[in-house]
Amino acid sequence: MPLSIDAPRFPTTIAVQSLTQQAFAAFGSVIENPSPNIIPSATLQHVPEGAVRANQGSALKFPDVSKLLDLYSSAPSKTASRACMSMFVCAPRLLQASRDDPHLAYFPVEILERHPFTTQTFIPLGLSHSTGDADADADSRYLVIVAPSREPSRHDQRFPVPAPDASTDAQGRLPGRGLPDLTALEAFVATGSQAVTYGAGTWHAPMVVVGGSPVSFVVVQYANGVGIEDCQEVTWDAGKVKVSVPKIEGNSSSRRSKL
After folding, report:
1. What is the pLDDT of residue 66?
2. Predicted TM-score (pTM) of this structure
3. Domain residues of the chain, as ranges?
């Protein structure tokens, strides 16, 4: 059952920003082709930094593009974890129309979750590279909504977290206790050529797809089947936190939602 927490004192609206590794570094990692303009070839003279030739020269391999982390050995239950690969088919979320700007809509954020003992990677399938293409599904995209943790308090004592001496994640920090800081929420819009890994213990919204069509994701993480160790959730009063979403002119979902 989610833990109810205090909402911000004043209503908060967060503008989305483009998803880049630099902007997202505090929360996890962004997975995308670092050299999209290079076509792999056996005759390729200059291999991009960090890449190696593969498949008889017909491919470039970029090793370790995102760190997978399993901290369940320090979970209180001592229940063994296993690697999991799931499919999430995510329908577009309903957006609220803006009364002041016809080019904006709003997604209300009312719940955040975290996975304290594991990273979690979302890999979109069949989503266009650009949100501006002319095909029917080009207006479909997904939002990555995250928040840093506050200092630990008595309010989050029931949430188990990794031991202080557990291995650090890709950013060199330890996941730990602390409720999400809703005043420091950040929101990113991803393209179809990007996957995202939430660092262990990172507070994030459940997947938010916006646009005209559902988006399928392959999700990779560890789990041990102990609910409070696999996933922790918090909720707050509705209407206090929302993300502004720029509208793509002429898209089908905007017409259906009267945005």
Report:
1. 93
2. 0.89
3. 3-35+66-248
